[in-house]
Each structure stands twice: as C-alpha cells, then as structure tokens.
C-alpha cells in the first residue's frame, strides 16, 4: 500500500458499528420512549400516546425504519432517508423544547445501553441538535 495515499476518514456510521449498531440503538430508543410514556410525569406521553395507543403497529414500525434511515444517512452511511421533512413530520404537534430534550435524553440512554462511547454519542447529538428548530413548535 502506498504510504502517500490519503486514508479515507472513517465515517461516524462505521465507527458506531454500521447497520446492526444503528438498528440496535433505534430499537432500544423506541422501547425507551414507549416505557417513558408509562411513567408518572411523562414528558413524551402527550405526543407519543396517539401513536402507541393507536394499535397501529405499522406506524411504529414506519417510524423505526425512518429513524434508522435518517440516522444512518446523517452519520455518513449508505442509507437514504425517504420520509417526510422534519417540519411536515411534526406539523401540528406543537412540540416544546422540554419535550425535544426529553426525547434526546431517551436517545442518549439508548446509546449508553448499547455501548456507544460518550464521544460518539456527542457526535450523534451534535448532528441532530440543529434539527430542533424544524421540529419544535411546528
Ligand atoms: C432530533 C429529533 C427528532 C428526529 C430526528 C425525529 C424524526 C422523526 C421521523 C423520521 C419521523 C417519521 C417521519 C415520516 O413518517 O415520514 C418522525 C415522526 C414523529 N415524531 Fe419525530 N423526530 C424528532 C423529534 C421528535 C420529538 C421531540 C417528538 C415528540 C416529543 C417527536 C414525535 C414524533 C411523532 C409522534 C411522530 C409521528 C409518528 C406517526 O404518527 O406516524 N419527534 N420523527
């Protein structure tokens, strides 16, 4: 191998562990969100109960698959997000900053429980944080 050849930077997607890791995190995240809606003083019940209680498992599966694609794409993987824009996906929900932060906290817990190192968690959150203004108060 040519010592002068530039080494391609390893994407966050690859460092996370690729599709198996992203899938494991998203599945844990969905489970965490559903569990959070069942706690007292839940911050996510208002927005997620309609989805969870609809009995429409297709909607939950669809959200899961969209999230895998979105995170997979945003972290530099080959996945392509084909869902709604963030304003369209959250239109009419009037999501608050408190609710946004509660959801990101559940993602953090999911990443911790799936063994994602803190520095990579920060990278993921830094990618998602700029979406806040297109999700909150839509
Ligand atoms: C960075 C933060 C977020 C990301 C990346 C995200 C991503 C998504 C995606 C990809 C969808 C599916 C879009 C589609 O069906 O085409 C969605 C839908 C949804 N999101 Fe978010 N979201 C975020 C924040 C939030 C927050 C803070 C809440 C509520 C507290 C929320 C609640 C929902 C709900 C209830 C749905 C609708 C599911 C349905 O009815 O089918 N999201 N989101």
**Number of individual domains:** 1
Number of continuous helical runs: 8
Query: What is the correct CATH architecture?
Result: Orthogonal Bundle
Percentage of residues assigned to helices: 55-70%
Bound molecules: protoporphyrin IX containing FE
Please indicate the percent range of residues in DSSP E strands (runs of 2 or more): under 5%
Poorly predicted runs = none
Find the CATH superfamily: Globins
CATH C-level category: Mainly Alpha
User: For the report, how would you describe the main beta sheet?
Assistant: none
Mean pLDDT reading: 95
Which structural class fits the helix and strand makeup? Answer: mainly alpha
Order of helices and strands: HHHHHHHH
- How many strand segments? 0
Instruction: Note the gap between the termini.
Output: 52 Å
CATH topology: Globin-like
From the alpha carbons, calculate the radius of gyration and give it in angstroms.
16 Å
Rough outline: elongated
What is the secondary structure topology, with strand pairs?
Elements: H1 12-16, H2 18-37, H3 45-52, H4 57-74, H5 86-89, H6 97-113, H7 118-128, H8 132-135
